[in-house]
Amino acid sequence: MITIYDIAKETGYSAPTISKALNGTGKLSNATREKIIKIAEDMGYKFNMAAKTLATKKSNLIGVIFEDNKMMSGFQHPLFGGVLNRFREAVEAAGYDLVFLSRTASISYLNHARLRSVDGIVIINPNMEDSKSIVELATSDIPCISTNDYFPNICTVITDNYKGGYEGTEYLIAQGHTKIAFLAGPISTSSAASLERYNGYKDCLKDHNIEEIKDIFEESSMWDSQSGYEAFSKLYGRTQDFTAVFAADDMLALGIMKYAEDHNLSIPNHFSLMGFDDDKISSYCRPRLTTFQQNKNTIADLTAEYLLYLISGIAEPPKSIKVPAKLIVRESVRKIN
Prior knowledge:
The chain is of the alpha/beta class. It is built from 12 helices and 12 strands.
């Protein structure tokens, strides 16, 4: 399906300019607007229906569900903060404003959404302690899309975590490591990033005929560095029979680095370390952290585009959309014989 970003690439104009041309808004010259519409028609873009829908919205508001009961980093999260910023730019270009939806003892996400008359909802990072409130949204008539968690009847645009877990483990194996510990974040079936990365890790070991060692797996209680410190202390207190650690995110990896510093352990001399997220601090810590960079711009762009499709009734997105992550090689992994 052709998107406004495809048209932007073809014409050389920005996505906001494309949106204004197709929706009849903004101060564009007739020549520019006609040029963009002609190219969009040639490419097969269904802009007429989208423009008609945008013109008849009740509120032009999109609800945002963004909680932080597990990440402990708020809008500074390396993925979700960036996704929110980029998503906001995309939907504002299409004429929408954002409103944050909260869930309290007296009001559910759905009731808050109806109170604000939102036209659609993006679920960036919900409070999974009350998943029933999200399921209630999924069965409502309000278009929803998720960027991290899986819910029935809601499309999820998410990093290909399984592939990242597999490729990260394969990279460590290529550097000579066969005893690779795994420090997971909180594992659940709905918020599946940690589980998918762990499954990729396990399958890669299996495909390389390397036996998985249960003693060198540990699950943290949360995704922050203190939880990483505490979980790794349990793992390291149990066994030191490993040469590398794959942490399910960079904050957990930083907790491991702090543990190593406090116990006079050198990374990567005592053990190599890999993270996931490419947090800003990962390129400044010592050693600089080998990790995976999630493509927050693509995740945000696809999330915005498909939510607008849902709102307009143009198309139904697939159940999930997987976006590849990029391996960033730095100094925290060493090659061994």
